[in-house]
Amino acid sequence: MPSETLWEIAKAEVEKRGSSENEGDGAEIGEKSVFFIGSKNGGKTTIILRCLDRDEPPKPTLALEYTYGRRTKGHNIPKDIAHFWELGGGTSLLDLISIPITSDTLRTFSIVLVLDLSKPNDLWPTMENLLQATKLNIDKVIMKLGKKNSKAASEMRQKMWSNMQKDHPDRELLDPFPIPLVIIGSKYDIFQDFDSEKRKVICKTLRFVAHYYGASLMFTSKSEALLLKIRGVINQLAFGINKSKSICVDQNKPLFITAGLDSLSQIGPPPLPDNDIGKLHARSPMELWKKVYEKLFPPKSINTLKDVKDPAKDPQYAESEVDEMRIQKDQLLRSPRKIPTLRGWSQLAAVSRAEVSRLLHKQPHSAWPALLPP
């Protein structure tokens, strides 16, 4: 029997890869995206840098930042590429969530929610706002995708249940997130010194939320051992490396629970006396847990927009010439009576035509001759 030619082997390999991609499992797709959202200053950048083996100090994320990583699979085989997106500002920039989530990337997209355990009063509103906004955008993309490719949209909905065993006792009580979700509790080194009762409430609440959404849950800190475990989880999302099956549900240790391995019976009821639970009126289990959590950790009423710093004043973006012109512009706007000549206007490159027009219209007609060049 004659052996296959080189061209026949190459053709068969291409057809094999094509059929694998069409199946929608993403196993052979060389590009994946991981979107980091979460608490402001919660450690998202630190986790990304650690996963990419970049030894550099983390800088504050201004708005939405992007970087990427590569992984070699073998000799003469194209490298896998992972796209890392990071949303800064906590919950103040929810409109930017829609940018990286597209119909082209959604089938290989994952969400990593990083929550600052050292700020329990901000934990629930941060988690709720970010997950709701993200899910809303994902649902819109899936709906749009369904109009063009109903098979792909159907496969995505079925894939939501991939982490949950068919005979899991809680299967009918859960509402899996549309795409893979990992919840990371950061700053465990501070959290471990909390009162045991507070730690119990936070741990049980996060376990319930993660289990309800079919997500993985784990705690981390600056500890190298914990960062290595987190790195393994992120690499699984980014490059398809085998998923860890380890589990730790002891509230006196850093939690590590892979999606689908927890259960409502192990988590238990909300940590509140039975007679108090009866007084709470909730329309769903999620709302009940929220009310119990916020009873102990009431959210702070802070305008999230106040947390966003002016990027023009951020030292990491300093440009001496531009900054000097900006100072002149700000001084001009604060003192509109001191209007330079047209020559002066031409030198203030940072002042837009709209602003010039607005300032001119504020002056009486009698002042206009002073604006003409000498």
UniProtKB/TrEMBL annotation:
One term of GO molecular function: dynein heavy chain binding
Species for this entry: Bos mutus grunniens
A Gene Ontology cellular-component term: motile cilium
InterPro entries per UniProt: DYNC2LI1, Dynein_light_int_chain, P-loop_NTPase
UniProt-listed Pfam families: DLIC
UniProt KW keywords: Cell projection, Cilium, Cilium biogenesis/degradation, Cytoplasm, Cytoskeleton, Developmental protein, Dynein, Microtubule, Motor protein
Protein name in UniProt: Cytoplasmic dynein 2 light intermediate chain 1
Subcellular location: Cytoplasm, Cytoskeleton, Cilium axoneme; Cytoplasm, Cytoskeleton, Cilium basal body; Cytoplasm, Cytoskeleton, Microtubule organizing center, Centrosome
An annotated GO BP: determination of left/right symmetry
Family from the record: Belongs to the dynein light intermediate chain family.
Principal place of residence: cytoplasm
